[in-house]
Amino acid sequence: MLDSITLKFTETPDLVLPTTGITIFVGPNNSGKSLVLKEIEHAFITHPFPNGLHILKDYEIKWPSKQEVSDSLVGFSSFQREGLALDDIIVGRINPSGGLETATLNKTSIFSIAEQKTNKYWWATQFLRWGVLRLDGRSRFNLTNDQAGGDLLATPQNVLAHLFQDDGARKKVRTLIKDAFGLNFVIDPTNLGQLRIRLSNQEPLADEQSLNQSTRNYHKEAIHIKDASDGVQAFTGIVTAVMSGEFHTILIDEPEAFLHPPLARKLGKHLGSLAAERGGCLLASTHSPDFLMGCVQATKDVRVVRLEYSEGKSRGKMVDPAHLEAMFKSPLMRSANAVGGLFYDGVVVTESDNDRAFYSEIYHRISATMDDAPSLLFINAQNKQTIKDIIGPLRKFGVPAAAIPDIDIVKDGGKTWNNWLQAAHMPSALHEGYQAQRASIKNCFEATGKDMKSQGGVGILLPSDKSAAELLFDTLQQYGVFVVRRGELESWLPKLGIPGKKTDWTIAMLERLGSDPTSPSYVVPENDDVWEFVSGVMSWIKDSARKGTD
Q1: Is residue 264 part of a domain?
Q2: Which of 3, 274, 428, 438 is the most exposed place for a label (fewest CB within 10 A)?
Q3: Count of domains in the chain?
Q4: SS3 152
Q5: What does 483-542 look like in DSSP terms, one character per residue?
Q6: Are residues 398 and 525 in the same domain?
Q7: Domain hosting residue 447, numbered range
Q8: SS3 (DSSP) at 305
Q9: Does any domain span residue 352?
Q10: Nearest Cα to Cα of residue 195 among 243, 159, 246, 220
């Protein structure tokens, strides 16, 4: 099997990824997640290494021992037939989408190349390819179609024929389906010449492959898979395909499609466990935190790679497994659904749920007028102090995470202020200088005798002091910390005249903004106030040269 793959990017260095265990590709839409799986599959069938690939640069082989080669050849025993040359062997696999695929190879050549360990492209394209399986959304439902039974005394020609003949594989599938849906997976042969999947509330009969009256009644009362929900079909199709052969490399694009979150988590756990049992590798692209969490539950050998692509520029970063584990263990990160940020162009972290709801609505209205708006996840950090505890870890994962604190951030001195600067990835050599600026500006606010949050923000300062405050806030903004210079949430859109504080203000503001875009009272984006502010956040996230992220 593969030992590693090397991915190439325009904005970040080449990324060399070990492929043992589980590799999960995450990121926003059109970031290259599906493409990398297609290119890995393509590299297994094209010799020499194919030109013109966008992400995959190369790969390395985990060369087997002589005994491991012999064991692999035994796995192809069902494909052999009479009339072969003495030193030849047939290798092959069941393609879940297209029946049986085979080729004839020379055994002496197989052992010689494995011993020499020099021709990795021949080894991958002629030998390893038979243990590679790629599944995508387009073929998901075809995997559960009725299939021809064929000659049950010969080599199986399709997935259902294989599972019908292989008691061990069929029972393994049954265990997984029972765990997911509480139903028993059976293969119904009663439509002579055709095999079909059924799901039953009753335990399978001892003679489940019989055609006697009791077995026929059992199948008649069971559910035909095509009458089940999309989720049941998708889950069952993936499981049966994976169990249709000893695949050492499983490539799955959006395995969570059509699955509710609990099922996506179970699928991740089951596929991760199967890959671990086989000593193989699972590479998947996903938008689902639940599928990712299921994989993490199955094994600690999980790596997450975040991909980005925009305006012809690509980036890739492997998430540190220790940081990933810490994120899953952190109550704050779990409650805020911070892991969901891995699947967006960026994240915006706010002080409270009122802030989250308001800024999210402003973003929604701005993005509705744009063709290239970034996908953003808005997160409630519960308070100002914990914003930095969320943006810091997300940035380590390569996620552009912006912070929106109220203006009283300047009161956060000492270690708290330094933690803000560290979370924003501001150069440590400048921390002392920024600390002095913050303290000086705080004193300027206090000298006014006014409340900086509720009585005008930077507007209450003398002109020279205001310029100094703006300079500090401009610097913070370059690093993705967007201070509300007017003071606080309730300072936005004053011309709408919304009274109240906190939740009362937020509810009244959202109602005033309107819900019907065709109504004359519906508030549309303009070029000032909070519209300009949130547009600045969006621009920072879209900018591949932004400061504050790796």
Answers
A1: yes
A2: 428
A3: 3
A4: coil
A5: -BTTSSGGGS-GGG---SSHHHHHHHHHHHH-S-TTSTT-----SSHHHHHHHHHHHHHH
A6: yes
A7: 331-542
A8: strand
A9: yes
A10: 159
366 with 504, same domain?
Answer: yes
What CA–CA distances, in Å, run from 376 to 21, 29, 51, 241, 541? 30, 12, 35, 35, 9
- Is there a single domain that holds both residue 204 and residue 92? no
User: Do 242 and 217 share a domain, yes or no?
Assistant: no
DSSP run (H or E) holding 250 = strand 249-253
Instruction: Give the whole-angstrom CA distance, residue 410 versus residue 468.
Output: 13
Question: Can you tell me the distance from the alpha carbon of 356 to that of 506, in angstroms, rounded to the nearest whole number?
Answer: 10
Q: What is the pTM of this model?
A: 0.86
Residue 14 structure tokens? 């080449």
- Domain boundary (310, 340, 364) is at 310
In a domain, 548, yes or no: no
For residues 34 and 546, what is the distance between their CA atoms, to the nearest angstrom? 26
Mind listing the pLDDT tens digit of every residue in the chain (550 residues)?
899 999 999 989 999 999 989 999 999 988 999 999 999 999 998 888 888 899 999 999 999 999 999 999 988 888 888 888 889 999 999 988 778 899 999 999 999 999 999 999 999 999 999 999 999 877 777 889 999 999 988 889 999 999 999 999 999 999 999 999 999 999 999 999 899 999 999 999 999 999 999 999 999 999 999 999 999 999 999 999 999 888 999 999 999 988 999 999 999 999 999 988 888 899 999 999 999 989 988 888 899 999 998 888 899 999 877 777 788 788 888 877 888 898 999 999 999 999 999 999 999 999 999 988 999 999 999 988 899 999 998 998 889 999 999 999 999 999 999 999 999 999 999 999 999 999 999 999 999 999 999 999 999 999 999 999 999 999 999 999 999 999 999 999 999 999 999 999 999 999 999 999 999 999 999 999 999 999 999 999 999 889 998 7
- Domain end (from 199, 228, 257): 228
Convert 432-467 to b/e letters by CB count within 10 Å (16 or more is b).
eebeebbeebbebbeeeeeebbeebbbebbeeebbe
Residues 8 and 156 grouped into a single domain: no
CATH label of the domain that carries residue 130: 3.40.50
